[in-house]
Amino acid sequence: MAVFLAANLGLVETPLDAAIRMTHRIYVYGAMPVGLGWHMRDTHGGKRIIEHHGATGGTWSYVGFIPEDKIGVVVLTNTYADSDDLGLHILDPQWPLADH
After folding, report:
1. Phi and psi of 22, rounded to 5°?
2. 9 band by pLDDT with thresholds 50, 70 and 90
3. Overall number of domains in the chain
4. Which one, of 72, 32, 65, lies nearest residue 49 by Cα?
5. Residues with Cβ < 8 Å from 32, sequence gap 6 or more?
6. Is there a contact between 42 and 48 (Cβ–Cβ < 8 Å)?
7. What is the pLDDT of residues 29-57, one digit of tens each?
8. Which domain range does residue 83 map to?
9. C-alpha neighbours within 13 Å on the C-beta side of residue 44
10. Residue 99 resides in a domain
């Protein structure tokens, strides 16, 4: 996941660079801005977070990054409890942490 995140941040070169950048383009699905396989949201400072999460079989994962700051986070847990807010708080310290 760290290599995948580094590729999405442009920190490593891969033959898939052009395709990766294409997934970061914003499309609108209803009222929600999305990329190809990514969700988009803004930080409290107005920067864009590109993210995705998922859960299966008692685990939860989150990956998110801010391309312009070259910062990202991967959160992997062995619980089905939503851990997105932990990743979001790392990317945006003003993001509130939920009580889980």
Report:
1. -60, -35
2. very high
3. 1
4. 65
5. 39, 40
6. yes
7. 888 889 999 999 988 889 999 999 999 98
8. 2-91
9. 9
10. no
Tokens for 91, please give them: 């990317």
**Cα distance between residue 72 and residue 12, in whole Å:** 14
Percent of the chain surpassing pLDDT 70: 98
The two tokens of residue 25 are 């383009």
Cβ neighbours for 4, distance < 8 A, ≥ 6 positions apart: 63
At a CB cut-off of 8 Å and minimum separation 6, what does 66 contact?
43, 47, 48, 49, 50, 72, 91
Confidence (pLDDT) at 99: 66
Query: What pTM value is reported for the model?
Result: 0.89
Is position 98 within any domain?
no
